[in-house]
Every structure is written in C-alpha cells, then in structure tokens.
Amino acid sequence: MKLTLKGVYKYWETESGKVRVLDNVNFSLNTGDFIAIMGPSGTGKSTMLHLLGCIDKPNMGSILFDDTDICALNESAREIIRLKHIGFVFQNYYLIPTLSVIENVMLPLQLANAPGNHLEKAYRMIELVGMESKINENTSKLSGGQRQRVSIARALVNDPILLLADEPTGNLDTKTTREIMDMIRLVNKEKKITTVMVTHDTKVAQYADRVYYLDEGRISSANL
Amino acid sequence: MVAFSLAKKNIVRKQERSLLTIIGVILAVGSFVALLSIAEGLNKKINSEVKSRNVDIYVLPQGSASLPTGPIGGLGASSDDIEVAQMLPDDDMTLPKTETGKPITLEDINNFKKNIRTAPKTKGNFIDYLNSEAGTGDSGDGSPLAKIKSAIGVTRFQKSIRGRNVIFWGIPFGFSDSDNTTIFQSYLPGMKIDNGGQFPIIAEAVNDMYACKNRRTASQLSQQERVFVAGKKIAEELRMSMDKPLNTNREGVSLHLEALLSFDAGFQDYFCYMPIQTAMAIDGSYGKVNEIWIQLEHPTQKDIKELKNALSYYFPDLEFKTSDEYLGTSAEMLKYAWFLEFAIALIGILIAMTASMNTMLMSTFERIREFGALRAIGAGRSTIASMILIESLILSMIGGIAGIIVGILGSIFLDGAVQAVFRMSFPMANITFNLILYALILSGLIGIIGAIFPIVLVYRMEIIKALKWDI
User: Fold this and answer.
1) CA-CA-CA-CA dihedral for A154, A156, A161, A164, to nearest 10
2) Which residues pair with A13 in a beta bridge?
3) pLDDT tens track for A155-181
4) pLDDT digits (tens, 9 = 90+) for B110-135
5) Considering only alpha carbons, which residue of chain A is nearest residue B373?
C-alpha cells in the first residue's frame, strides 16, 4: 500500500482567527516503511496522525491510500478503514477498563465481525506481545508497559496495513520503552506494516527508518 | 453483541449507581402497577358483574347514569336515593307470582307493573302505557312491548357491618321456593345455593308480608320478614352465621341469615339479598326502586333496540339502557379513574425517567474518552449508541420486572388500604395481562428516554475532542 499526502492543510478556527497547524504537507510512504515524526509540542504531530488515521479531515489537500482519497469518503467508509486497515497505539493506551486483556484484544475482531476464531487470533497476538500469562487479567491491574503491550496487540489483531503510534512510550520508563520499541520494530519488519510514530524522544525516533521534523506546520526530513 | 457485552460490563462496573437507577424504576413501575391495579380490578369486576346478569334493558331515572352498578354504592357514589318508580301504597301490591315450576310470564309482570307508576315528573304513566300498547300481556301484536318476557324492580342500600359497608339488594322474591329460584336464576344465572336448600323461609316471609300489607317501616317488620341470604364471600369475611342474628343498627332490626349463595362472576358473592319489601322497610324507602330490569323473550339486538326506542319515546323522563350501554357508562367513568391514577403514577414515572437520564448522562460523560478510543479503533457511532441504549434498557427492564413484583405486592397492600378507608367489603385490585404489558412498555420507555440525550451527545461528539476529554 502506498500512502500519499498531497498539499495537506489543517487549521483551527479560534476566536482570534485561524491557527495554522499543518501547512502544505507532502510526503509518501510505501508498504513497510517506518517513520517517526518529531517536533515541539503543539506543532501538529498528533493532528497529522489523526488525519492519517481517518479521525480528522484536512481543510485542504488529499490523503491517498493507494488511489483512494480517504478525505473524500463518508464517515461509514472511514469507520471501516479505521477498523480493518489501521491500528492505533495511544500514549494513554485507552484500553476498556471493564474488559480483560483477551477481551480488549478481541474487541476489534468483534467490531469488524471478522471471520475465524476470535479467541484464537486474539491469543496469538497476546502471545506476540508476551502477555499470555495475564490473559484474563483486568487491564486496570496492569502496569503501564503491560497496558501498552495489550494496546499493541489490539492494534495488530485485525492485520492492519498502517500502524499509527502516538507517543507510545511517553508514559514508560527506559527499560520498558526499549521493550515496547523493539516490539513495534519487530512487528514492522515481520508483518511489513507501514508505521508512523509520533515522539518527542530522539532515542525512540531512532527505531524508525526515517525521521521527519514538524515545525510551524511544515514538515522536513531530520537527521538524528 | 459487542454493544450488549460492553453495556453489561459497565452496569456491573458502577454497581451503586446502577442499583439506584433500578430502585427509581422499581418505585415508578411499582406505583404504576399498584395504582392502576385498582382501576383495572374495578373495570374487570364491573364488566363481569354486568355480564353475569341476564338483563336486556335497564330502566333508570334520567341522569342517573353515573356508575349505576351496585359496588359503587360502596365507594360512596351511591344512587340509592334515586326514585325510578313508585309503588302505590294504597293499591294492592301484587308481585310476580307463578304456579310452582312455571316461569314468570308477561302477565305476571304486568300484574306487578300495574302497581308501579313513574315519578310525578314523568309525562306519561309507565304502566298505563305498557298496558294500553301491549294489551294486558297478550303477545304477538307486533308491538315491541309484547316482546317483554319479564321485568323486576330492584332496590339496594348499604349498611356498615363490623366496619365494612355491605350492599343489600332488595329483590322481588316470590311466594314459593321455585318462584325464588326462578327469579334468581333467570336474572343472576350463575347462582348456586351453597347449603343445598332453597329459600323456604324467604318465601314464607313474602307470604307473611302480603298477608299484612301495612308493614312499611323497619320496626313494623315481623320476625318472619327480617330475613336475608348472603353471598358466600361476604358471609365468610364478616363471619355471618345462620345461628346468630345480624344487627343492622337501624331501629334495633336484626336480620336472620337463611342461606349462603355462590356465583360465577361479578361482585355477587359480596352482596346480601332480601325480599324487596324488607329492603324498602329497612332502608325507609317504601315504594321506591332503584332500577327496573327487563328481559325479552328470545331477544335479538333489533328487538332490544326497538323496545328501548319505544320506551324512550314515550318516557323521556326515564333512562333506558341496553346492557352494553349500562356497562359503557360505567366504563366511561372508570376511564376517568384510570387516568387519574395514571396521572398520579406519572409523577413517579417522570422521576424515574429523570433518574435514568441522569445515570446515563453521568455514565456517558465518564466514558467519553473510552468512546473516543472505541471510535478511533473503528467502532461506529451506532455501536456506541446501541451500547448506551442497551445499558439503559437493561437497567430499566430489570427495574421494570422488579417493579411489577413490587407493584403486585403493593396492590395487595393498597387493596387492603382502600377497603379499610372506604370500608368496602370486596377486593378491588386486579393484575391483568394488559397491566403487566403496559408496565413493561413503560419500563422500556423509561430506558429509551433515559438514553436519548446521551446518544445525541455521543453522536455529535468528534473523536479527537472525545480523546482529549478531561473528566
């Protein structure tokens, strides 16, 4: 899958006028690419991730998944893309606290009404992230690192083509950060999942193939 | 399925709040069921009461249509003092009398009718008209009146006995056992005499009364005439005994119970019956009846309508009602009772709806980030909406079902309270299938209305705002 951003503009309407967040952003990614986006706070890193993840729309420009402009799709079609083709990993994990580890991981499969044995598939993902010993544990009882592993398993369970990670290690200690990043890198390489990661941490950014720097809405390649 | 599973888990997550919402619904549905069971019960009882009588046309005074059935007398809206027709005290009073085993004929009735005339305000003379138009009972002349098989005047009064209001019906008992059985079974066909016998003493009382016509007050009644028969249930409830006289507290009159009766339907089991003369004397309304019940020979709807029209034309000051109309008037009044009780129950329902909406709103606000995350991973708006709706419905339906149980228990309590306050002798509350159905629909409505606002909120919310939501 080729992911292309063409002349993407995004601004927020405020009382004092328009605040430009993304200003003519252009870049493209091929299957299995792993990029990191860095930059100061409030420069639009997360906004870009939201645009790629179909949870927001640009004011101008297009975002192409191969030849399909996802910005032109209606909400139902975007829901399906989010569900079946995109995996999200959040800094705050956003696991469902009433569900166990396995139930959280099974959730996207159930929402997508995916074929096959959901339990088996979810278990394989949990095994992949090394959480099989906690399978029936309630997620509220897990540590931050463990929650992020579960979150990664949930993001991967529907075999997405694009993995979006928003500060995935922002709340984790150094050791756990390393473990999580090794895992994301592994998944990127083995499953050939295009990965876009937003981070403040240069050490974390080094896991990516390429690093982009976002400042005042403009994107540029960065050399770390 | 996912929505159901998530909804279920969330209910368990906030147990205290869920419980409070359920309690709110229980109280609303419980009060709805308990209150309306009284109206439903009254409706059902009056329906079966009227249907248990074999009466084709009721004759009532003009404007006396308000709940004419007997039990309402027990509720205070009595029509006891309404004068339909007057027996002429100076005339010979001849009640329908037949030879043993023979049904009462039109001639017998006309003999009875001869001695009745309408109240002075009535334009014509009821009996004169009947006699002149229908001859002296000869049928087959084509007149609608010729189709009359029989008619009886009935009266009723109520007495407080051991703290309960008991309704006594004055019935024109005959001079023999078979006459009495015929009259009863003809007009109240479900009647059975429990202790096997007929009414020998009642017949003797009637004979005695005709032997001495001037007994018009309670104190003038002979011991022989102070008799009554009782429905089985009222006799049981008030521990009436055939060995012990029943004191009516009126001029020291005590009555003797001669037989116990049981009936198939209606309030009949809660009434007492006595010769009409005894009833009039005790009630101090000698010569007055409350209603006249008319039966037709092989009645068709057309016959009934024709007779009713003919009677209405000549006697505009009297009210003629078919059995359905008679019931319809009661039903009309009961509708008001139903709406009044519903209005009272509505207060509870509105409180429950507000509580349910509040719970669902709080629960939604607490989970907005969770909903945002669900939307981000691909859950549709409809999935989230279903989740909120299901959660609200589970709470309201659990509350509804428990509320129905509480309502049933409440109706027993309320029934007792109504009986005590109004000093009624018969139970009113009745839990019908329709009432349960309405309660379940109402529970569902509480759930749906409680979920509407949170659903609208979630539908409008942008995913990014939801993810950044600060609780």
Assistant:
1) 60
2) A18
3) 989 889 999 999 888 887 888 888 888
4) 554 544 433 333 333 343 444 344 43
5) A94
Which residues are CB-contacts of B433 (< 8 A; sequence separation ≥ 6)? none
Q: Using CB atoms, pick whichever of A80, A111, A158 lies closest to residue B2.
A: A111
Cβ separation A154–B373 shorter than 8 A: no
* B443 touches B25 (CB < 8 A): yes
- Residue A171's φ and ψ, nearest 5 degrees, are -110, 15
- Classify residue B90 by its DSSP letter: T
Tell me which chain A residues have a C-beta less than 8 angstroms from the C-beta of B467: 90, 94
* A194-198/A3-14 β-pairing: unpaired
CB neighbour burial string for A69-99, b if at least 16 within 10 angstroms, e if fewer? ebbebeeeebbebbbbbbbbbbbbbbbbebb
Spatial separation of the C-alpha atoms in residues A93 and A152, rounded to whole Å: 9
Separation of alpha carbons A141 and A153, rounded Å: 17
Chain-chain contact of A53 with B376 (C-beta, under 8 angstroms): yes
The ipTM estimated for the assembled molecules is: 0.89
Is B126 in contact with B248 (CB distance < 8 Å)?
Answer: no
* Interface with chain B: mutation pick from A111, A119, A198, highest number of B CBs within 10 Å: A111
Confidence (pTM): 0.70
For helices B433-460 and B323-366, what crossing angle results, to 10°? 30
Dist. CA B240–CA A137, nearest whole Å: 70
Among A82, A97, A99, the residue with its CB nearest the CB of B377 is A82
Q: Is B156 exposed, middle or buried (0-12, 13-18, 19+ CB in 10 A)?
A: buried
A19/chain B closest Cα distance in angstroms: 17
Q: Which residue of A has its CA nearest to B14?
A: A98
* Radius of gyration, alpha carbons of chain B: 30
What are the tokens at B245?
A: 């006289």
> Is the CB of A151 inside 8 Å of chain B's CB atoms?
no
- Contact between chains at A96 and B372 (C-beta distance less than 8 A): no
How many helices (H) and strands (E) chain B has is answered by 15, 13
> Which of A50, A92, A107 is opposite residue B2, by nearest beta carbon?
A107
Across the interface, whether the CB atoms of A90 and B467 are under 8 A apart is answered: yes
pLDDT mean over B271-292: 78
Q: Which tokens go with A7?
A: 């002349």
Q: Which of A80, A98, A108 is nearest residue B377 as measured by Cβ atoms? A: A108
Range 8-27 of B in CB contact (< 8 A) with A: 9-10, 12-13
Q: Do B370 and A97 touch (CB under 8 A)?
A: yes
**Residue B379: its chain A contacts at CB < 8 A?**
79, 83, 111
What is the pLDDT of chain B when averaged over all its residues? 75
Q: What is the distance between the terminal CA atoms of chain A, rounded to a whole angstrom?
A: 27
B305-346 pLDDT per residue, tens: 888 887 777 666 677 888 888 877 777 777 777 788 888 888
B120 touches chain A (CB under 8 A): no
Instruction: Write out pLDDT tens, residues B391-438.
Output: 999 999 999 999 999 999 999 998 888 777 776 667 778 888 988 999
The answer to whether A53 faces chain B, any CB pair under 8 Å, is yes
